[in-house]
Design a protein that fits this description.
This protein has helices at 69-72, 113-116, 202-211; strands at 6-14, 17-20, 29-34, 40-42, 45-47, 50-57, 76-77, 83-87, 91-95, 101-103, 135-141, 144-151, 154-163, 166-171, 174-179, 184-192, 255-257. With 258 residues, it is mostly beta strands.
Amino acid sequence: MDISMVVVTIYFVGIAAVANQAPQNNVNKAVIFPEASEGGDYMGTPLMPHLASLNLRTKDFVAGTPADFCSRIDGTLNIDNTICSVPLHGARLWTQTTEGLTEDTTFRQSPSFLNYNRNARNLPDWYTGVDPKFVAARFDIRGGKVFGCNRGQQFIAYLSTNGDGVLYLEQAERTVRIVLNTNSVVAIENKPLHSMTSATGESHFGWYYAMNGRFVAAIADPIARPTAVSAPTCAATMPIEMSSSALASAECSTVNFP
C-alpha cells in the first residue's frame, strides 16, 4: 500500500472553535478545544464542565501495535475494548499531508460565532497556544478536505485527509506517533459532563462567549440560543457514545470563530 494515500477521517465534536490562520502559516486552520473540565463562568452565567478526549478505534491500529498501546499513551479502553480514549490537557495534534485544504459545501453550513455575536473577535493569544489552563487540545489542519454533519441538532466538523496515516499527539512532554490503517476514523471530543437535560443551553454555548477575550464588555452580551443548521447526518462510525445522540443539541456545536 502506498503510505502517501492512507485515508484518515477526524471528527471534531462538541465545544470547539475552528479558527482560520494567516496565509503565511503552513497551518491553514486550527481547531481549539477549550479547557473546560472544571466548568466556568461568563459574566454570571455558569458554564458546564466539558471533558476533552482523543477517541481511537482499536481496529484502526496497524499490525504490530503493542496490545497495551492504549495505556502507553495514557488512554483507557471501553468495556468491549473497541475504543481507546485519551484525556487531553494542553495537547497539540496534527497529521502530515501534501494536500491543499478545501472546504465541502457541508462545512460551509457550519455556524459562525459572528452570526450570533456582533462583538466576536479573533481568539486571544492564550487560546491560540496549548497552555493547559486554557486549552484542552489544539488540532492543526495543514490540508485535506473539511466537511460537516449533524448528530441530532449538533453540528460536527470533520477532516478527511490522505497522508502517511500517522496522527501525532504532543502532550505531557512527549510527542507520540499513532500509526493508523487506511480508512481509520478518529474523534476529538469535548463532551459535557452531564446531559443537556440537566442544564440550559447557555451553559454550553456560553463557552464561546468566554473565549471571546479580545472584546471586553461592560455589560454581558446575551448568550444566543443557536438553532440546527442543514447538514447530512453523521456516520455511525464515529468513535463516540452514539447512544447519547438524542441529547445532542445545537448549543454544543462546533463553530467557526469568529
